[in-house]
Amino acid sequence: MVGNIPALRQQLLQLFHDLAMGGHSGMKVNKKRLASILYWKGMSKDVRNYVRACVVCQRNKPNLTAPAGLLQPLPIPEAIWEDISMDFIEGLPKSRGKDTILVIVDRLSKYAHFLTFSHPFSAAMVA
Predict the structure, then answer these.
(1) Residues 54 and 88 both lie in one domain
(2) Residues 6 or more apart in contact with residue 44 via CB below 8 angstroms
(3) Are 49 and 88 contained in the same domain?
(4) Do 12 and 53 have their domain in common?
(5) Domain contains 75
(6) Which residues contact 96 (CB under 8 A, 6 or more apart)?
(7) Which residues contact 43 (CB under 8 A, 6 or more apart)?
(8) What was the pLDDT predicted at 22?
């Protein structure tokens, strides 16, 4: 059991994480390795904070997400107003008490409607 000595805890974390023995392993591996021979209250939190603060780990962190793949084209609509796109433009300076624009565009004709709103607004107001 390691006492409440922050300098000792920091040295142990550095030893188990930074040196060749640790190899900049992740949180789980470091915690498991430390917990196999040592313990202190709040060890999991200390390991997590140490690994998150490690500049080498953050700079060389592997990308674990799958590649996005190829873009797929949207189907071409066959009738006007059959398929629309909508988007909010927010954070505009107030004009007549309104600071948000809802843009609705028909994907076939490219005809657009612009509706103004002021914060706060609800889904019922938009509908």
Answers:
(1) no
(2) 31
(3) no
(4) yes
(5) no
(6) 116
(7) 31, 34, 35
(8) 62
Whether residue 50 lies inside any domain: the answer is: yes
Instruction: State the DSSP string of 74-126.
Output: PPPPSSTTSSEEEEEE-SPPPBTTB-EEEEEEETTT--EEEEEE-SS--HHHH
Specify the pLDDT at position 67: 85
DSSP 23: T
Same domain flag for 46 and 13: yes
Q: What's the residue count for the chain?
A: 127
Question: How far, in whole angstroms, is CA 62 from its chain's centroid?
Answer: 16
Residue 93, domain member (yes or no): yes
CA dist 19 → 1, 4, 77 (Å): 22, 23, 60
Where the chain has pLDDT below 70, the residues are 1-2, 21-22
Q: Among residues 37, 40, 31, 33, which one has the least CA distance to residue 8? A: 40
The boundaries of the domain holding residue 49 are 6-59
Q: What pLDDT score was predicted for residue 26?
A: 79
Structural domains of the chain, count: 2
One domain, residues 94 and 52: no
Measured CA to CA, the distance from residue 28 to residue 94 in angstroms comes to: 50
